[in-house]
Design brief:
The chain has one domain: Protocatechuate 4,5-dioxygenase, Chain B. A hairpin with a 2-residue loop joins strand 8 and strand 9. It is globular and about 45 Å long. It is α/β, with parallel strands linked by helices.
Length: about 260
């Protein structure tokens, strides 16, 4: 099964019929049908390691200032407690909490709703402990790699460059520093240089501007961690919109539905 990192950007991409939304619709049709999805979203930060274990996770509207139409969205995809337990088993040695109360945040349903509009693919989310070094997250991801052979789509949802303080909604032109960091990440990913991506402050003098907080960058590390040396890869939505990068990466071979 391939694995995917998606730059999710503006929550409105979940419902607006724009190029990003259309690309997620196409991707859902191109990928092999997954048994389930394990999503690592920038929007679930928690201490330790937590996994959603509800049979029917609720749709979380974790944003404000958007139209009522977005708050009205429900994505009733089932959960997968068995997969949650499997994740816990793979992460043996870590204290994993199976959380049967947590629902799906917009980093998950915002991209999965266009990909699987019938909401018939089970979804499990994995939390991010942003107190931990990136190497810890990479090591966790390596332990999760066997899920790909079990038909599970591992999906990271974040943004390589994500600086809302410098974002200009009405001016999509990207500053040079955002482009430079995005390109540096792409080069290192293409080269398979996991160490450089883990130590991302060394990638560019602009790293602090591009990644002022780590939660949107971390989902990329999980997809990096489940990558096999032999995997093909493809960059998707390779656009930097002001100070948010929508660049996405699919690893492994897609096939037409």
């Amino acid at each position: 099964m391939p694995a995917v990192f998606l730059g999710h950007g503006n929550p409105m991409n979940a419902i607006e019929h724009n190029a990003f939304h259309a690309s997620w619709v196409r991707l859902g049709k191109q990928l092999p049908r997954p048994k389930a999805v394990l999503c690592i979203s920038a929007h679930w930060e928690a201490p330790g390691v937590r996994v959603t274990a509800a049979r029917q996770p609720e749709t979380i509207h974790d944003f404000y200032g958007f139209p009522d139409e977005l708050f009205a969205v429900e994505y009733p995809a089932p959960g997968d407690p068995e997969l949650a337990r499997r994740v816990g088993a793979l992460l043996q040695g870590h204290e994993v909490v199976l959380d049967d109360k947590r629902g799906l945040d917009h980093g998950a349903w915002g991209v999965l709703r266009p990909m699987y509009p019938a909401a018939d693919v089970p979804i499990v989310q994995l939390s991010l402990d942003t107190r931990q070094p990136l190497q810890v997250h990479y090591d966790l991801a390596r332990k999760l790699a066997p899920l790909r052979d079990e038909g599970v789509l591992i999906l990271g949802s974040g943004n390589i460059v994500h600086n809302l303080q410098t974002f200009r909604y009405h001016d999509p032109a990207a500053p040079e520093w955002a482009i430079a960091f995005n390109e540096a990440v792409k080069r290192k990913f293409a080269a398979g240089d996991a160490a450089a991506l883990i130590d991302y402050p060394g990638l560019s003098e602009h790293a602090k501007l591009a990644v002022p907080t780590v939660e949107h960058y971390l989902p990329l590390i999980y997809v990096l961690g489940v990558r096999h040396e032999s995997d093909a890869f493809e960059f998707l939505n390779d656009v930097v919109h002001s100070s948010i990068s929508m660049t996405s990466i699919c690893i492994g071979e897609k096939r037409a539905a």
